[in-house]
Amino acid sequence: MKSWVSERLRHRGWEASAFAIYLVVGVLPIAAGLIYALAYSVGLAGLLGKGFTLAHWTSLAGQAEVWLSLLTSALIAAATMFLTLLAGACFALGLRTRLRQGVVAYVVYFPLALPATVAAFFVFQALSDAGLLARVFHALGFIRRPGEFPAMIHDSWSLGVIAAFLILSVPYFTLFFSQVYRTEHLEELCRLTLTLGGKRRDCLRRVIGPIFWRRGRSHIVLWFIAMFGGYEIPLLLGRQTPQMISVLTMRKYQMFDLASKPQAFIAALLYFAIVSLLMLWAFRDERLDRDV
């Protein structure tokens, strides 16, 4: 009995120590940064700090730049997420056995090891007007010169940004959906659906789709947040106006005009607020699903 009690106390001691390390290393730096950003945005810190003021917030509220940046970032992340889920589900269902063995089983892991900068460089070399695809189209006679290749880098539709994000996200969700398909025994459930008179589209719409969404909701939200706040890829491949929120924030922070620095902190705070709401929604529903 004493040994059991001492073991429990030792275990709780390790848990308390681990939680304390987490607070010091993970939580406190973020909290300190948020407090400083908030203080800077209301004039209580920084070179422009002369007392409490909401002038920076009211000035930013009347400008469309940050709001367009947030909207652009959300639209790019949403479009990429839609294409990612569509491609990941198709690959997971179409390559079920090949994802477990053979060349495909190894190749699909390779993009997961690529840094965002490398993915952006690869897309630039492939999709620029002097890149690989432009030269292939020119060699095949579809265009008279490589410069006639459609603009996909720094373009108004952010096609290069979306392509680079897809390189990183599609393999992950392909493997994730493939694992869900196996662990949830979806093949047997689909057979049962067909046996009961359902059609294949019923299997996709009423069985596979809802289970993929339920198991992958938190992953989807986290990937959306990562693309929503991505920096390297939109910096290298994205357009200049409007910029994605991370690029705009860094540009405002690094400008020589000191009056733009509070706006950079406000943009960061707005991004943090949106991300926090998304994470609360995702993980609250995840907890409710586990309770059910």
UniProtKB/TrEMBL annotation:
Keyword Cell inner membrane tagged: yes
Key words of the record: Cell inner membrane, Cell membrane, Membrane, Transmembrane, Transmembrane helix, Transport
UniProt key word Magnesium: no
Segments forming domain ABC transmembrane type-1: 70-282
Primary localization class, coarse: membrane
Membrane-related topology note: Multi-pass membrane protein
Name of protein: ABC transmembrane type-1 domain-containing protein
Transmembrane segments: 21-47, 67-91, 103-127, 157-177, 220-237, 264-283
Compartment(s) of residence: Cell inner membrane
Coiled-coil blocks: none
Lineage, opening ranks: Bacteria, Pseudomonadati, Acidobacteriota, Holophagae, Acanthopleuribacterales
GO cellular component: a single term: plasma membrane
InterPro entries on file: MetI-like (IPR000515), MetI-like_sf (IPR035906)
PROSITE patterns, sorted: ABC_TM1
GO biological process, one term: transmembrane transport
PANTHER family on file: INNER MEMBRANE ABC TRANSPORTER PERMEASE PROTEIN YDCV
